[in-house]
Specification:
flat; 6 helices
Length: 149
Amino acid sequence: MIAETVCSAVAAAGLGIAAVTAYRKRFLAATRIAAYSLVPLGLVMTGVVDWLADTAFSPTAWAGFGVLGLSWVLFSTTRAVERRRGGTRKERRAAARGAQEAMAPTASAPSLGPAARTPAARPAAKPGTTGSASDDFSDIEAILKKHGI
């Protein structure tokens, strides 16, 4: 009984605030405030408030919420572990098979030797290791001479 009174009072106060907001020529905000203030009234009229009041004082309902929370924690944990490992076991096996098939040479393709490697298959060169150390110092010497040092 008290929950219905509180929800009705909240709805009436919200509609009053919406009226003041509309008086200030802020119609969009007033409409939004009115929509929010009608929610508690609708919950009272549909009986949701009575159901919530009965549920709030039921130990069985709280145990059910606890079981639902435990279920959510278990689902979240398993999903986090799957993401850390890189997917489910079936997905990892399929990825491993795909990698093996990509690396295996096909019998029908002619062998063109090591020069026919794709750019993705070639190892990447490390920057700065193309020449010897004396080449590096000659570049530095040229820069210093250019600046008169």
